[in-house]
Amino acid sequence: MTNPTSDSSASASAASSSVSPQVVLLGANNTNQLQAQTLVAINSTQVPIKLTKGDNYAAWRSQFENLLFGYGIMGFLDGTKPCPPATIPAPASISAVDQQSGMTVPNPEHHLWLRQDRLLLHAIQVSCMGAAQSIVTRSTTSAQAWTKLAATYANRSNTRRLGLLDSLTNVSLADKSVAEYMQGIKNILDNLDLIGNPIDDGATVIHTLNGLGPAYLPLASAIRARDTPISFDELYDKLLDHESFLNRDGSKKSESVVTAQFNQRTNSRRGRPYQGNSSNNMGSNHYQNSGNNHGQQQNYGHAPSGGRGSWNQGNQFRGPNQSHSPSNFQWRQQQYNHASRPICQLCDKIGHTARVCRSRPQPSSQAWPQANHMTSDQIDSRNNWILDSGASHHMTSDLQNLSLHSEYGGPEDIMVGDGKTIPITHTGSTSLHTSTKSFPLSHVLCSPHISHNLISVSKFCTHNNTSIEFFPDCFLVKDLTTGASLVRGRNEGNLYIWPKSVSPATLLTATSQHQVSSLAWHQRLGHPSLQVLRHLVSSHGLPVSKLESQFSHCHACLCNKSHKLPFGISTLHCNKPLEILFTDVWGPAHLSSFDNSRYYVIFVDYFSKYTWLYPLKHKSDVPLVFKRFKTLVENFFNTQIKTVYSDGSGEAQSLGHVLANFGIQHLKSPPHTPEHVGTAERKHRHVVETALSLLHHASMPLRFWSLAFQTAVYLINRMPTKVLLHQNPYSILFHKDPNYRKLRVFGCLCYPWLRPYTSHKLEPRSKPCVFVGYSIEHNAYLCLDRISHRIYTSRHVVFVESVFPFANHPSTVTQVLPEQVSNWLTNLTSNTTHQPDIECPAVPNLQPDHATYLPDMLHISLPNTNSPMPTRSVIHDPSPASALLPTHVQLLPPSPPPTAVEPPMRPVSPPRLIQTRSKNNIFKPKTILDLHTTTHTTPQSEPNSLLQARKFPEWRQAMSVEYDALVKNSTWELVPAHSSQNVVGCKWIFRIKRHPDGSVARYKARLVAKGFHQRPGIDFTDTFSPVVKPVTVRLILTIAVTNGWSLRQLDVNNAFLQGTLSDDLYMEQPPGFTHSTLPNHVCKLRKAIYGLRQAPRAWYNELRTFLLSTGFVNSKSDTSLFTLHQSGHTLYLLVYVDDIIVTGSSDLKVRQFIATLAQRFSLKDLGPISYFLGVEATATSRGLFLSQQKYIRDLLTKTNMLDSNPVSTPLSATESLKLADGSSLTDATQYRQVVGSLQYLSLTRPDVSFAVNKLSQFMHRPTTTHWNAVKRVLRYLKGSQYHGLLIHRKSPSHLHAFADSDWAGDPDDRRSTTAYIIFLGSTPVSWSSKKQHTVARSSTEAEFRAIASAAAELNWLGHLLSELRIPASTSPVIYCDNAGATYVCANPIFHSRMKHIAIDFYFVRDQVARKQLRVAHVHTNDQLADSLTKPLNRKQFSDHRFKISVLDGCSILRGHNRKEES
After folding, report:
1. Contact at 8 Å (CB) between 486 and 478?
2. Residue 914 CB neighbour total at 10 angstroms
3. I want to staple 1122 with a disulfide (CB 3.0 to 4.6 A). Which of 371, 487, 1112, 1278 is the partner?
């Protein structure tokens, strides 16, 4: 530290020259002549210890305290040197007037103090790393940073004390050095000392000795036996000395390598096999070779000997702590008995080895053999194999000698006789061939650094079941079983050389010179790999001209052996939260949750692994959820989302547009590669497994899965994970520990405080409930009342965590149904006393401890009209698009109360007791304190009156749009009212138009005239307006899909207003839009308006006139079909009131016609057909899929059957419905409404045609049995709501039909049921199921009437196709399973018994005779119309449904999504 100077110039000079980087001298103000002072700056070299995660906080703090105390500036941190005031009184040199006025001047000490404090803060920040740095990032003073670090890492809580004591108890040396081991103990002791819980030396020594391994057992025993205590420092020195002793001993053992002269034997001196030194397995991890080749010392491998590894009795190499070796194969080691002392090989004396034997001959300078060097020049070192009894493995230097090999990745090396090591590059196998036999060599080591090929005698004999006898000039290989000699080799240059291999291929070549290419062998052997083929060629001597790798590009292998490539380490990296988010949608769930959710979406922060989960009702809600999620988290964390990673599914496509608008990068996984979003996929598995475990443990029904999933994410965010080095996501994201004391067992019994909800003072203050999770908007718990199905939110809860109500009373578990509740409950007050167990949130709007649920993101308050500030509300329809106020009570969908529970008795009130609001704890809030705001709520139901609609701006806007369109179109003119006028009233009709997924598309208001006030003949004449037939729609769609034409959908705005009226009509002014100056006038209508009897007819005539003028021709078969054939192009137009479908052979002509039509009428071009007449149309690779799942879902919701159990068939096959079954319904309205709604399903669902027809026969007098049958049909639709009709893209264009009847199948009147289904190619276009009008006397008669009905329909379809100019390639065919009816159609002789159906006979027979129709017989099992005549069992019904192209849309659309992704 540089001494300060006395004048400012010296100070400035010192500062400019930067003599010391740690100290900068700043002089005082020259004007004030204040004493010069100094600033101390600390660099990184002065604080070498960096604070990382708190384990070294004591050392870090000690170095800081010593350094700052030396500089005398410790007061900045401990508060003894506070900040001086910013200003001081004026000095004496100022005039007396200024002094009297209290003039002040800036205080230079204040500025100097601030600068010094910032330098200290900077020093603290740069000395912190990782998690510690984030703690002090937002500190403004050095004292604040110092205090935060002390509070984090020197916390005196009992939890931290117990954790440190536990760490000290479980400390272990393991594979650490003594220095590392003692340093870890020292850090724990320092942290304990910081929190005021020091440990004495005696306890420290005990913990240290307990953690030592068995190698330190002698030292530990000696220390424990001492009479005088030992200090920690002295123990440290002794452990270091003992560690050095162990290291020296280990190095000596590693030097004593087994050589050719070191050999242990048993007590007998001769005849015992060779035995390695099993006690010498503590050397380096190498393969050793003593070179024991009958007296010739060679430096090639020996038995494997490892550093810390050893060979166990299971012949499997073990590494440290008996773990498996990382080598790619297991080596076999023959076990031998061993004695305690070595025997010399030269003199046969015990106690020494040949290396130190006195009888050992001295080396000669002329003929001493050299290691790795052959003395004979005739030996080819690359092709010859040398027998070595001291080698533990076969070895080679040439990779070509191996027929099947692979790279070696293990840590072992080859150790030669002089102690050096040679690396191993490959391992493999080969064979040594003779004229009579081949000897395989397995586990051959390849190293290019050795000069000869070695054969391990022990391995050779073991693997080939042979023995080897060595003689001075040769050796013999004999079969152990027969004793026959197999191979004879020679001794060349004192080495036993394996004779030249005679390959079987060479023998074959002598008789046949024909050789086959490697590609041909590859094809013969069934396309094996190159390595397998090499092994076969080498082992069996296959005649191969040249072993090439040309078949590595085999086309058949490349096409049929394609696999996913391996995935490398992820390159994604982020430094802070929200940089990278992973998202994915799970679902649909087989069972909707209690809040009607079937999906959920998760957002996973890649930095902290923190997860947000949101239940969804529809997949289409994902973009809306993300928008609100983005706003919430970005405001809370004050950072921006940069990248979102998802798969390429349909919801991800819609999310991509939202991300593009916000400028967020959207990364998507390749098609069919979920591994790229493995973070989200693995999170799905973790969440689902945890949630199902919670439900199973609590024995709760699966319909509560959304609550369990939310609770699971809540817990997962607080659980440590190895990915975060055993930290939890909550702590990483919010920089504080979660409150684990708050947690309770999911599904257990609880008793919330319900005093605010009681109606009188004698009512109990609580009731038994079920704990179902943690509140989002409150720091409280969620408690389910199983009787009233309410969810209470309370922080005053008593838990009984050993009792689970759903497990104790399974009989009371009932299926609840959703109910729309729209009444606000009364305002109830609640106590807010403090409980220490509850975790207090730091942020009121978003509690980090509760940031895992959807309602936390979507708060939409309900309107406050006349009721005071509500604190109690009910659930209407929880979904991402509609959430609630912070609630205290939520109503689950109701169900009948269990019979086992008695309803509470109501107290008898006195006769004249006056009940007031105050007695029920209901108080009107004072206006001056009523500071809450009201947020607009989107209407979810359709209003029934103008008064209800005026409360919502959406409906007001819709009425304004409708009124403006009427005025713009000059629909009426105001005229004075007269008594001769028949004035028609009008009203507003409100409808919510929805997308196929149920989300709101727009709010539509329609002004409708009260047409029932009109008088026929005076106000109207013709009223009929044709609409297109469903058969025509399906036929046109099939033709368009088969030909690959585009299908466009149009909607005419205010279609009825386009029609011109020919009669004088008067109407009242629209309600809510009465003219201010002419309130008594009436509207004289010029154009047709909705509700008028003649309005549909007027609009149809207007459209028809225009289409005919443009060249279209009105079809005679269906008046709502218009065709245009012009210049080789074809256009078809279908009209259903104001909905229009246009298709044609030319997309250009279609666009031109739409533009022409838009000039005449106001249109909305809805693009490709997607939703027409309640039918959802989805284009797939297989064709066009038509379904009515939204219609079915709405019907199930309307009838409270959404949560019913599905069945496989619409009607029972064992029970027949009769007219008199059951008791009559008191009110048949609902029965008729539901059956009428089911009839509309016949547009796309021929599988329910018979059931609907059967139930329609009881419309006049339905019974309870019939109503149960209706509910069974609804249950069938529940299980098959995603089924629909598939229009095949590739299909022939010929007509064929299946006709069938159920003879006398009605038990009430024995009439038969007729049914037919007609196909255009593979697609059904027309079907019917109805009861015959008369009783058939035979099955032939019933079947013939079915044929006649199908023939009539085919005749009509034929005329329609001729108008469409689609020629029939063949005559239509009707398939019938009744042989008699088939013969009657073909037999020209009319039977007398068929006279009563003569008309049908001649109708069919005439068409068959002219070859316009053909009737063929089909087996009953192949009769596709059978399911339309009677109920079938599950197997038959499922087969027939599949054959008539009614398929499950989930699998079809899943393939459609994959097609879009690719």
Report:
1. yes
2. 6
3. 1112
1066 to 891, 981, 988, 1075: CA distances (angstroms): 50, 7, 17, 16
| Cα-Cα-Cα-Cα dihedral sign, residues 1061, 1067, 1072, 1077 | positive
Q: Which CATH superfamily is domain 580-804+846-891 in?
A: Ribonuclease H-like superfamily/Ribonuclease H (3.30.420.10)
Q: Pairing state of beta strands 1129-1136 and 1139-1144?
A: antiparallel
CA–centroid distance for 860 within its chain = 28
Closest CA to 1035 of 1320, 770, 804: 1320
* β-bridge mates for residue 1007, sequence order: 988
What is the pTM for the complete model shown? 0.40
What is the C-alpha to C-alpha distance for residues 972 and 1061, in angstroms, rounded to an integer?
A: 11
Q: Which is catalytic among the residues 233, 237, 249, 388? A: 388
- Report helix, strand or coil for 727: strand
**Cα distance between residue 1381 and residue 1336, in whole Å:** 13
Spatial separation of the C-alpha atoms in residues 642 and 663, rounded to whole Å: 8
Three state DSSP letters for 112-143:
HHHHHHHHHHHHHHHCECCHHHHHCCCCCCHH
Q: How far apart are CA 55 and CA 187, in angstroms?
A: 7
Whether 1091 contacts 1102, CB under 8 Å: no
Judge contact between 1263 and 1225, C-beta under 8 A. Answer: yes
- Can you list the alpha helix ranges (DSSP code H) found in 574-620? none
| E strand or H helix at 486 | strand 485-492
What's the CATH number of domain 1291-1431, 3.40.50.300, 3.30.420.10, 3.10.20.280, 1.10.10.10?
3.30.420.10
Does residue 1343 contact residue 1300 with C-beta atoms inside 8 Å?
Answer: yes
Residues contacting residue 418 through CB under 8 Å, at least 6 positions apart: 299, 371
Strands 643-646, 665-668: parallel, antiparallel or unpaired by DSSP? parallel
Taking residue 1123's Cβ as centre, other Cβ atoms within 10 Å add up to 18
Give the Å distances, CA to CA, from 1079 to 965, 976, 1071: 21, 10, 11
End-to-end CA distance of the chain: 69
The band of 122, judged by pLDDT with boundaries at 50, 70 and 90, is confident
Structure tokens at 527: 């396309």
How many angstroms separate the CA atoms of 1247 and 7, rounded? 104
Tallying the residues shown for the chain, one arrives at 1462
Q: What is the DSSP letter of 373?
A: -
The segment(s) of the chain belonging to CATH 3.30.420.10 are: 580-804+846-891, 1291-1431
8 A C-beta contact, residue 1010 and residue 984: yes
Would you say 1414 and 1404 are in contact if contact means Cβ atoms under 8 Å apart? Answer: no
d(CA 611, CA 629): 12
1353-1368 in b/e form (b: 16+ CB < 10 A) is bbeebbebbebbebee
Is residue 377 classed exposed, middle or buried when 0-12, 13-18 and 19+ CB atoms within 10 A define those classes?
exposed
Rg (CA), the chain: 47
1400 classed as catalytic: no
pLDDT tens profile 717-774? 999 998 888 899 999 999 999 999 999 999 999 999 998 888 888 889 999 999 999 9
Distance between CA 1214 and CA 1178 in Å, rounded? 37
pLDDT in tens, 793-809: 999 999 999 999 998 65
1100 backbone dihedrals φ, ψ, rounded to 5°: -65, -40
**Count of alpha carbons within 13 angstroms of residue 1040, beta-carbon side:** 26
Helix axes 232-255, 217-224, angle to 10 degrees: 150
The gap from C-alpha 1090 to its chain's centroid, in whole angstroms, comes to: 49
